[in-house]
């Protein structure tokens, strides 16, 4: 199987606001190497500020000021535009647009056929739990529905790679749980390659084929844990002794950062 993402020895620093005259830089990512196979679900887990969102932006091609190499399906996003499905930490739905026109925004931007996508969208709206809410505005939805709308919009972007930055970070515990169950189900049916950022241990173990643990800034990958539970996965796995073992490994890795 092909590697969908190849990241080799990536280092990233930002200029730091400093006192007059001094050039200072803040090292954010240190020697990051990782690869994702096609249709693999990989979580990046690490403390706040360790560079997770920064890494996703580099992979999405939104920032090319780094050293090392990033290849997406063999293409370097510094050299050629690569389409990926990218969802920011916030849902970023536009409040004045309806759910439907928010979801179809990427199609509009890419000048695709709204009619064609509208047809494709019908069954997806029901799978994403949004059927009947097409004409609502974002403020009329629950938090979980807003996230599902944002995920559906992301899913409709071109590209077979999904970059999800803490998509459930702002949700209450119960909604988060429902969204995790729902995402497992959706992903198992629709399979895309996913790089998923989270700081939630259980979420990482439940959803992923592999969990990569990052250190404090400058973020390094300090531990890689393959999660070998069979799919389809059910939430009951959380009670499995093997689940606790995985969590234990992550906690141990995080204790040494
Ligand atoms: N545009 C920027 N300019 C300067 N520093 C930044 C910028 N974006 C992020 N940083 C810094 O990079 C570090 C990592 O940020 P981020 O990638 O958002 O962390 P995480 O997503 O892991 O919480 C933080 O210390 C942050 O202040
Ligand atoms: Mg972040």
Key traits:
9 strands, 257 residues, alpha/beta, binds magnesium ion, Rossmann fold, binds adenosine-5'-diphosphate, 6-stranded mixed sheet, single chain
Helices, strands, pairings?
Elements: E1 3-15, E2 25-37, E3 41-45, H1 52-59, E4 67-72, E5 85-87, H2 99-103, H3 105-109, H4 114-127, H5 143-155, E6 161-165, H6 173-190, E7 193-198, H7 201-207, E8 210-214, E9 221-226, H8 241-255
Parallel strand pairs: 3-7, 3-8, 5-6, 6-7
Antiparallel strand pairs: 1-2, 1-4, 8-9
Helix pairs in contact: 7-8
The protein binds adenosine-5'-diphosphate and magnesium ion.
Textual characterization of the structure:
The chain is of the alpha/beta class and 257 residues long. The protein folds into two domains: 3-84 and 159-255, P-loop containing nucleotide triphosphate hydrolases (Rossmann fold, 3-Layer(aba) Sandwich), CATH 3.40.50.300; 94-158, no CATH class. 33% of the residues lie in helices and 24% in strands. It contains eight helices and nine strands. The chain has helices at 52-59, 99-103, 105-109, 114-127, 143-155, 173-190, 201-207, 241-255; strands spanning 3-15, 25-37, 41-45, 67-72, 85-87, 161-165, 193-198, 210-214, 221-226. It has a six-stranded mixed sheet, with helices on both faces. Strands 2-1-4 form a three-stranded antiparallel sheet, covered by helices on one side. Strand 8 and strand 9 (221-226) form a beta hairpin. Helix 7 packs across helix 8. The model has no long low-confidence stretch (mean pLDDT 91). The structure holds adenosine-5'-diphosphate and magnesium ion. Magnesium ion (MG) is lined by residues 52-53, 89, 165. Residues 52-53, 89, 165 line the site of magnesium ion.
């Amino acid at each position: 199987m092909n590697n969908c993402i190849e990241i080799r020895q990536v280092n990233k620093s930002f200029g730091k606001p400093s006192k007059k005259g001094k050039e200072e830089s803040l090292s954010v990512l240190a020697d990051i190497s990782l690869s994702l196979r096609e249709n693999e679900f990989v979580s990046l887990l690490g403390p706040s500020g360790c560079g997770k969102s920064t890494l996703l932006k580099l992979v999405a091609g939104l920032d090319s000021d780094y050293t090392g190499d990033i290849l997406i399906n063999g293409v370097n996003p510094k050299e050629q535009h690569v389409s990926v499905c990218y969802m920011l930490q916030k849902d970023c739905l536009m409040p004045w647009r309806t759910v439907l026109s928010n979801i179809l925004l990427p199609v509009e931007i890419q000048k695709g056929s709204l009619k064609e996508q509208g047809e494709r969208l019908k069954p997806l709206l029901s799978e994403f739990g949004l059927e009947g809410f097409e004409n609502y505005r974002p403020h009329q939805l629950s938090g979980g529905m807003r996230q599902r709308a944002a995920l559906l919009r992301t899913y409709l972007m071109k590209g077979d790679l999904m970059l999800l930055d803490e998509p459930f970070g702002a949700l209450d515990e119960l909604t988060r749980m429902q969204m995790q169950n729902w995402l497992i189900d959706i992903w198992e049916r629709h399979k895309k390659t996913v790089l998923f950022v989270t700081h939630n241990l259980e979420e990482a173990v439940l959803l992923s084929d592999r969990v990569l643990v990052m250190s404090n800034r400058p973020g390094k990958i300090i531990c890689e844990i393959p999660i070998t539970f069979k799919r389809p996965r059910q939430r009951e796995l959380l009670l499995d002794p093997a689940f606790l073992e995985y969590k234990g490994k992550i906690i141990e890795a995080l204790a040494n950062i």
